[in-house]
Amino acid sequence: MNIKDVMIIGGGPAGLSAAINARRRNKSVVLIAKEAISSKLWQAPKVENYLGLTDITGQDLAERMREHALEQGVEFVRDELQNLWEEEGRFSGMGREGQYSSYTVVLAVGVMQEGGIDGEQQLVGKGVSYCATCDGMFYRGKKVAMISQIPEGEEEARFLAELCERVYYLPQYPLKQVVDPRVEIVKGKPQEIIGEGKVTGLRLKDTVLEVDGVFIERPSVPMTKLLPDLVMEDGAIKVDREMRTNLPGVFAAGDCIGRPWQISKAVGEGQVAALSAVRYLETITSKV
Predict the structure, then answer these.
(1) Residue 277: left if φ>0, alpha if ψ -120 to 50, beta else—which one?
(2) Euclidean distance between the first and final Cα of the chain, in Å?
């Protein structure tokens, strides 16, 4: 397997900044992200507080950032890591589409929303899933709900429609197209996932959807699932001024380390994380 110097998880401003700065130091980089362009930035109608760019849309800024990274030789992979572990001086990540390996990791996964729905954490693996293509087969002929914060959830909903009796789709972003005639669009914010030992329903403000499973699509899986030993503080990844986490070789930047959730802050932190990762690489006397 091709081992990279730096594995970056997340393709928003922090992740792209980390990727560009690591490549500027001649380090090999793979950037893994579920979204081709950060949906949070893409949806911004105008960005007016980014230094030097007085009138630009979020989509244009995101595309410029991505083009810059491509010009620097950053390798982009459209995938979502399901597992990440360290052994023998290197990190290995298993995604839906492939397996990846590196000597350092930069977490740039955006706003942390772990167990954001009442009942979610208690019912993970008991009807709550973060991967429709992984677990959809268990719900053949049943009723399910798909809660998605990103447009990529539409593809997952269409996949579920091939298997399930009924699919409710709850987009938590501005929906711009018909997902699939077999998918029922439900507006509203989920309040609670219901069930004792297994999922039996999804509570909204004014109704309850009777379902056997709830699938949740976010820009990334919960960090406590990827790295159970990662120290969190007030719902964010705890780092020092060098963007180092408590795990050697693991750095973090951007919205996932806390407020303010601003593009310029994320870009600066991404740069610091990359430079810290480069310095860490220099301390490794031998790469196994």
Answers:
(1) alpha
(2) 12
What is the β-pairing status of strands 128-129 and 29-33? unpaired
Strand intervals (E) in 27-172: 29-33, 75-78, 81-87, 90-95, 99-107, 128-129, 143-148, 166-171
Name the DSSP class of 53. B
Three-state DSSP state, 114 = coil
For the chain, what is the mean pLDDT?
91
Integer Cα distance of 86 and 13 in angstroms: 26
Tokens of 274: 């990359």
d(CA 48, CA 253): 22
Cα–Cα distance for residue pair 45/184, rounded to 1 Å:
28
Structure tokens at 113: 């929303």
CA quadruple 263, 265, 266, 267: dihedral positive or negative? positive
- In degrees and rounded to multiples of 5, residue 120 shows phi and psi of -65, -55
Tokens standing for residue 6: 């730096």
Nearest alpha carbon to residue 254 among 275, 278, 228, 236: 236
Query: Using an 8 Å Cβ cutoff, are 51 and 264 in contact?
Result: yes
- At 33-71, the pLDDT tens digits run 988 777 778 778 888 889 998 889 998 999 999 999 999
- For residues 124-141, one letter each, b for 16 or more C-beta atoms within 10 angstroms of the residue's C-beta and e for the rest, the string is beebbbbebeebbeebee
